[in-house]
């Protein structure tokens, strides 16, 4: 049951201003104003990772929350904190403040940089926007949330013909703000490996 933990978390984060929660990812997203920086799900508090603390989270062996979307696993940026952190709430607050600052910075950057329409993103045209809409992805925010892999899998599901991997590179470029041709071979291999893993998980 997530509710008692959600109440404790909201109480702890009140120093950040107006805190509210919304149902999200099968749990409850915690927002300061309109910015989500934490998640309560499976009776655990998760904090949003950013460039500064993601490495520290991984080294501390914290695990990101994974949820199922259309039968495929989607890895979020929210990492479950250990239960013993609750013994020293200041540690939680310190990490949560970094998560909130980074989430706000990301949001501002995205609002300044990203176009309002999918067709205006790098590599994508109106035909791609229509395909994605048919697959249930109708906004730039949704595309950024599911990422290149999630979008490609949604297209595979809604599209009857086989899709070229060029479309996967185009989606990755659209999400990362670059031309598809500059995506490195290493990144392409990572994407293929993730695609394969997700497909195997979905079939089990």
UniProtKB/TrEMBL annotation:
Membrane-crossing residue ranges in chain numbering: none
Stretches assigned to the TfoX C-terminal domain: 115-194
Cross-referenced Pfam families: TfoX_C (PF04994), TfoX_N (PF04993)
GO biological process: establishment of competence for transformation
Top-level lineage group: Bacteria
Residue ranges occupied by any TfoX N-terminal domain in the UniProt entry: 12-103
Name used for this protein in its record: DNA transformation protein
Coiled-coil residue spans: none
UniProt cross-references to InterPro entries, sorted A to Z: TfoX-like (IPR047525), TfoX-like_gammaprotbact (IPR026256), TfoX_C (IPR007077), TfoX_N (IPR007076)
């Amino acid at each position: 049951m997530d509710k008692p933990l959600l109440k404790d978390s909201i109480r702890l984060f009140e120093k950040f201003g107006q805190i509210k929660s919304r149902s999200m990812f099968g749990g409850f997203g915690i927002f300061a104003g309109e910015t989500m920086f934490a998640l309560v799900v499976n009776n655990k508090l998760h904090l949003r990772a950013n460039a500064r603390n993601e490495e520290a989270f991984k080294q501390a062996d914290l695990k990101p929350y994974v949820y199922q979307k259309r039968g495929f696993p989607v890895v979020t940026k929210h990492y479950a904190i250990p239960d013993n952190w609750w013994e020293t709430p200041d540690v939680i607050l310190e990490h949560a403040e970094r998560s909130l600052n980074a989430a706000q910075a990301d949001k501002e950057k995205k609002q300044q940089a990203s176009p309002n329409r999918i067709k205006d993103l790098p590599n994508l045209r109106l035909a791609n926007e229509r395909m994605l809409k048919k697959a249930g992805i109708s906004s730039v925010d949704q595309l950024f949330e599911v990422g290149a892999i999630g979008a490609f899998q949604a297209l595979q599901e809604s599209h009857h013909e086989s899709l070229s991997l060029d479309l996967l590179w185009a989606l990755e470029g659209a999400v990362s703000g670059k031309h598809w041709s500059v995506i490195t071979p290493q990144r392409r291999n990572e994407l293929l490996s993730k695609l394969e893993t997700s497909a195997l998980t979905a079939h089990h």
